[in-house]
Design goal:
Layout: E1 33-37, H1 41-52, E2 56-61, H2 69-76, E3 81-84, H3 93-102, H4 105-108, E4 111-116, H5 133-145, E5 149-152, E6 165-170, E7 183-190, H6 197-210, H7 215-234, H8 243-253, H9 267-280, H10 285-292, H11 297-309, H12 315-318, H13 323-343, H14 351-368, H15 371-374, E8 401-402, E9 408-409, E10 417-422, H16 433-440, E11 451-454, H17 460-463, H18 468-471, E12 475-476, H19 484-500, E13 504-509, H20 519-528, E14 534-536, H21 541-548, E15 561-566, E16 584-589, H22 595-603, E17 615-620, E18 628-633, H23 637-643, E19 651-655, H24 680-691, E20 697-700, H25 704-711
Parallel strand pairs: 1-2, 1-4, 2-3, 4-5, 10-13, 10-14, 11-12, 11-13, 15-16
Antiparallel strand pairs: 6-7, 8-9, 16-19, 17-18, 17-19, 18-20
Helix pairs in contact: 3-5, 7-13, 7-14, 8-14, 9-13, 11-13
């Protein structure tokens, strides 16, 4: 069993306290009061943060104190309370204790956090002397005996908690939040653990600047979808009360949940969803009149159920109800739609599985979609796919032409085309030159693209290369669990429709289109529709990923051949793997979701079992700044991953002696593996020397050399 990582002291236990005003009236009394001693500028900053979090704020002040202007204003508006605080700069623990005990019980029963701010070097124009360190120590001792948590300004050693530098994100206009407050639920906090507060402020500023302006609205949109799913559970749709929370825990700590294979919808189910979606768009005059008359949501819902029983979706009616009802009601209706279709088709799916699938898809789009697109996520992301219309240049005029004989000649219809583009392993710098041209070229260029169709794993950094006005029209595959086939069909249909309309269609795939990219079946589909697509190769992750991570897939004396396979076959079936050969490297794409069963098949292979001590590496998000490489042995990798933070898709697995050959013991390398006689004892010894006492290796982020290349530094 590998050793667990040793804790490294120096971090804070960062906690997020729930807002007291968010609790129900039936909840027991909570510690929801903050006592700030000294009415100075720092107290004003702390008070504002506490008020926004729903806490009551009480200021301790002397009659002679000069109040901060902001605090004085809040005092006059009764936003903060006041208690007398006349204690001198040198009072001891006994005096502190007596003062605390004399405070009103109604205040101190609800107070948990005490902040002492008169320890600052400057106190504005106050006549109060700066508090001594000894007195601050006694304050902490007295407060601790009474079970209060304290913070002493400029004294980290005396503080139970610190204040991170924070940023609250604004909301941008959104169909989901027309009447929402100006501030979003998203809050960023950065701490240097009191080591470099000014630097923390700068870091906050620079981190915020890297995020899109709509990120706050994106959080609100995802929250609205989650709330709607929770409402379904409480309405008795088949979920337990804690189903969403359980799904969240599964996604956050389960590691492989996001990409876990799911049963695919049958062709009949996909067709049923499509028919229901089309029917849902066909509102009758009676339906419109019902909504216009302002019927209650319950009445509209009843009407929707009646229509649903006739095979029609309620999506159209849901779009006409008032905005606050939109998401909640529409998604609940989508649940009915989903259930009705599934119940009418032979399937092993249950209502619970269908709902968990949609919840997992919310998690997936949170992980994969570009951040600037999440603000506009709607019901269509969770229901049968629709066809958004991307912006594109106007079609050329079809004005008739006159020949020399005065005959009217219509111009020939503009022929469209389809391009299958490989976008490489992830980094924008690893795109081919041709890929870059197709992504960025303006109208009038021979490389201009009218319609962008993207797989969900194409990184947002690559999509961001598309000029902003046209980026909004990018269509991302809705490959949520169980809907991969339907989503694939949707993109192929959209590509054909776009080409028939005379557009240049760019179908983007991660890696290379012909290496587990389903490029071949798309070529055949497009040919059958009358379009012979151009396939533009991309750098495959099966080669680029290991190379970036310092793992040669072939190497003299180590690996003489390379086998690339997938971990998930068509329809979610298991994939057979070739037996072990000492001089062979095995690269597995899309295999993390089935790691347990895959490793079991290696160790019990019917022809040639893989040695349990054989080196193996999991490469996650190759070429991205948050790249991670976890190296272990075939028998220990799964246990190692259980100790680490969750999996970061996409991931690939490399198995074979090439994983360790450039490192070996103490980084000296080992390229004589094939020259040595095969012996388990010697092989185990070389692996143990490579992995060290922990039994595994973890490399976070790009190496220094690669960072210098990506950042353009040191060149």
């Amino acid at each position: 069993m590998p050793a667990f990582a040793a804790p490294q002291p120096g971090a804070s236990l960062l906690l997020s306290f729930a807002s007291p005003i968010a609790s129900s009236s039936s909840s027991p009394a909570r510690h929801d009061t903050l006592l700030l001693l000294s009415p100075n500028r720092l107290s004003a900053v702390r008070a504002f943060a506490a008020l926004e979090a729903g806490y009551s704020v009480v200021i301790g002040a002397a009659a002679s104190d000069i109040w901060d202007e902001e605090l004085q204003d809040r005092r006059e508006r009764a936003e903060v309370g006041v208690v007398e605080f006349e204690l001198g700069a040198k009072v001891d623990e006994a005096e502190w204790g007596a003062w605390l005990d004399a405070l009103p019980g109604t205040l101190m029963d609800r107070c948990m956090l005490l902040v002492l701010n008169d320890t600052l070097p400057t106190l504005l124009e106050s006549t109060r002397a700066r508090r001594t360190f000894a007195s601050a120590q006694d304050f902490r001792a007295a407060a601790s005996k009474r079970r209060y948590l304290v913070n002493v300004a400029d004294a980290p050693a005396l503080s139970d908690f610190s204040w991170p530098t924070t940023h609250r994100f604004d909301l941008t206009p959104s169909p989901l939040s027309p009447t929402a407050p100006a501030k979003s639920p998203l809050q960023l906090a950065i701490t240097t653990n009191s080591s470099a507060c000014r630097l923390a402020t700068r870091l906050r500023r620079e981190v915020v600047a890297t995020l899109p302006s709509s990120i706050g609205s994106a959080v609100l949109a995802i929250s609205s979808l989650r709330t709607a799913l929770a409402s379904e559970a409480k309405a008795g749709s088949g979920w337990s009360e804690g189903a969403i929370e359980e799904a969240d825990v599964e996604i956050e700590v389960g590691g492989t949940s996001l990409n876990r294979p799911a049963e695919q919808l049958s062709r009949a189910q996909s067709d049923g969803l499509e028919r229901a979606e089309v029917a849902g768009r066909q509102l009758t005059k009676a339906d419109e009149e019902v909504v216009e008359r302002g019927l209650s949501p319950c009445r509209v819902r009843a009407l929707d159920r009646r229509r649903l029983s006739n095979g029609a979706s309620s999506l159209g009616a849901a779009r006409l109800v008032p905005a606050p009802i939109l998401v909640r009601e529409a998604i609940a209706d989508a649940s009915l739609l989903h259930s009705s279709v599934l119940s009418s088709q032979p399937s092993t799916w249950t209502a619970l599985e269908a709902q968990r699938t949609r919840m997992r898809y919310v998690a997936q789009i949170s992980e994969y979609w570009p951040l600037d697109r999440l603000a506009s996520v709607t019901l269509s992301s969770l229901s049968a796919p629709t066809t958004p219309q991307p912006s594109s240049p106007p079609s050329p005029s079809l004005t008739p032409l006159l020949s020399r004989h005065s005959l009217i000649i219509a111009p020939p219809p503009q022929a469209g085309r389809i391009l299958l583009l490989g976008t490489g392993p992830g980094s924008t710098l690893l795109l081919t030159r041709l890929a870059y041209l197709f992504l960025t070229s303006p109208p009038g260029s021979p490389y201009h693209v009218d319609l962008f169709l993207s797989d969900k794993l194409v990184p947002s950094e690559i999509l961001a290369l598309i000029p902003s006005p046209r980026r909004e029209g990018v269509i991302i595959a809705r490959k949520f669990p169980g809907n991969a086939e339907n989503a694939q069909d949707e993109l192929m249909r959209l590509a054909v429709e776009g080409a028939r309309a005379g557009k240049t269609v760019l179908r983007m795939k991660q890696g290379d289109p012909f290496l587990y990219g389903r490029g071949g079946e798309e070529v055949l589909h497009f040919r059958a529709a009358g379009f012979d697509p151009v396939v533009i190769p991309g750098l495959s992750s099966c080669l680029a990923g290991p190379t970036i991570c310092g793992i040669p897939v072939t190497q003299r004396g180590v690996a003489e051949s390379l086998v690339v396979c997938t971990g998930v076959g068509r329809g979610g079936r298991e994939v057979g793997v070739e037996g072990y050969e000492r001089g062979k490297t095995l690269v597995v794409l899309m295999g993390v979701a089935r790691l347990e069963s895959f490793i079991a098949s290696l160790l019990s292979h019917s022809k040639s079992r893989y040695p349990p001590y054989l080196p193996i590496a999991l490469i996650e998000r190759a070429s991205s700044p948050d790249q991670r490489v976890v190296s272990a042995t075939v028998e220990t990798l799964e246990k190692v991953l259980q100790q680490l933070s969750p999996h970061r898709p996409p991931g690939m697995i490399v198995i074979g002696w090439g994983v360790m050959c450039l490192e070996g013991t103490e980084g000296k390398g080992d390229v004589t593996i094939l020259d040595d006689d095969v012996g388990e004892e010697k092989d185990r010894a070389r692996v143990e020397g490579w992995l060290g006492r922990k039994g595994y290796r973890v490399k976070e982020g790009l190496g220094e050399g690669w960072r210098s290349v990506v950042e353009g530094s040191g060149l």
